[in-house]
Amino acid sequence: MLVENLASLGRAKRNATSVSLIVIAAFAMYNWAVRPQAASLSSAKAYESLAEEHAKESRDVVTKVDTRRKMLMRLSEESDHLLDVLFTSEQAGEFFSDLQAASELAGCAVHAINMISEGQKSEHQRLGIRIRSVELNVVGMYRDIATLIGRLQTRSQRVWLDSLEIQSMDYSSDTVGCRLLITICEIVDKDTS
Description:
This protein has helices spanning 2-8, 11-85, 89-97, 99-105, 123-126, 142-153; strands at 109-116, 129-141, 159-168, 175-187. It is of the alpha+beta class and 193 residues long. The chain has 2 domains: 2-82; 89-187, Ribosomal protein S6/Translation elongation factor EF1B (Alpha-Beta Plaits, 2-Layer Sandwich), CATH 3.30.70.60.
């Protein structure tokens, strides 16, 4: 029936109908063959772009993680070093109880040992470090006092001499009086502070 209708049409109408059918077939072929491929290529390009972006972000994250890992290692080493130079509670107790014996071994006579009380809680205590100070008054010769200071400073833990005052006891003698303000830092268990 379609063929009969086409045969009855005039030449111009047949040509127009044929061209219309060819155009419709071309659009159909384009939609069936070319358009899915073009969409696939477009999707592949978008995927490739996203993959490159994610790979760059991944490299950035790996770099940041590596940098932070190195920083953590450095801080861990610094923390270990700091822990080596601080006193534990037991070591601090031993240090203060041995001050008189250390002074006498150095040849100095101890006149007084006064613990200096702490003031308010400081930032150090919040971090688990307590600063403890003692005033040590001794009498001896210059070399004996130098020996005592050397003994205090040769410990593996850090000992600070905040002040040192020397007074002559007698102008006819080599004996001098020395007042030392000694400070140490003690690691405090945070649960007990």
